[in-house]
Amino acid sequence: MIRQATPEDARQVAPLFILSMGHIAGIFANSDRYEDAIPFFERFFAKENNQYSYENTLVLEEEMEILGSVTGYDGALLHQLRQPVLDQIRKTQPGFTPNDETEAGEYYLDCIQVHPAHQGKGIGKKLIHAFCERGYSLGYKRVGLIVDLENPDAKRFYESLGFFIAGEKDFMGHRYFHMVKENKI
Q1: Mind listing the pLDDT tens digit for each residue in 139-158?
Q2: What does the H/E/C string look like for the chain?
Q3: Is the pLDDT of residue 185 over 90?
Q4: Which one in 8, 121, 128, 158 has a CA-CA gap of 20 to 30 Å to 184?
Q5: pTM for the complete prediction?
Q6: In angstroms, rounded to a whole number, what is the distance separating the alpha carbons of residues 145 and 65?
Q7: Per-residue buried b or exposed e for 9-35, using 16+ beta carbons within 10 Å of the residue's own CB
Q8: CA distance 137 to 132
């Protein structure tokens, strides 16, 4: 079942964040070990008003186990939602200033992750579909996301779901495709 996340989901969802974040999780944790970012994501997930909050997350749960999650928000709110995260990171990395990965006018899919034991079962597709439907029901005309140029499999996956390349963006030391899916209704 796909449902709105709650603060109590933090312990199950936080380890999943590092799956989709990769090197970004290491930057957030100021560590080469991505798993060092789990407490960071637990803390922000359980709080309101930030980009990684449970408020911005849907989870797919079966038998009390979270198999995957998708997190996103109004692209126009990026700076407001990112600020608490930046404040925390800048305690150890004062000059940390990432580029914007989204923009106003789109419902931005920040991260999607599926537990490794449950990958390849269509969970990601279900979560993305639910996320897009949520965005469209809120009145957004398009859903946006970024995909690392060095990840052609992810690009093909999103294209198979109706996303197309709208441009490119530099973000956190990598180059990304900015992909969007438009509401056809």
Answers
A1: 999 999 999 999 999 999 99
A2: CEEECCHHHHHHHHHHHHHHHCHHHHHHHCCCCHHHHHHHHHHHHHCCCCCCCHHHEEEEEECCEEEEEEEEEEHHHHHHHHHHHHHHHCCCCCCCCCCCCCCCCCEEEEEEEECHHHCCCCHHHHHHHHHHHHHHHCCCCEEEEEEECCCHHHHHHHHHCCCEEEEEEEECCEEEEEEEEECCC
A3: no
A4: 121
A5: 0.94
A6: 26
A7: bbebbbbbbbbbbeebbbbbbeeeebe
A8: 8
Mean pLDDT for 43-67 is 97
Domains in the chain, start-ordered, CATH in brackets?
2-182 (3.40.630.30)
Choose between 162 and 35: higher pLDDT: 162
